[in-house]
User: Fold this.
Amino acid sequence: MRNKRTYYVVEGSGSFPCDMLRYDHAWPHSEAHDSHAIEQAAFSEPKGMRRIMLATDTASGPNRDRWKSFTWRVVAVGSDPYALEQWRTNSAYQYA
Assistant:
């Protein structure tokens, strides 16, 4: 039986923990926005708060405690990517 896809938004201001993609079996939701944001957050100086949407097919979803250990946090989780994108876009933070 195939697991249901889960979408989630992570937030942080330091270097993006690329290893978390492997750990959570995740990938960027949007090639245009989220992949670019990961590249910027991983290989450049921090430029304020960033929010990045990821997707995973694992039953357990994102590992919140492990994200926190990298000073990033999971701020939203859901099964509807459009609702999460709307939430991220209308949030108080300007993301890179």
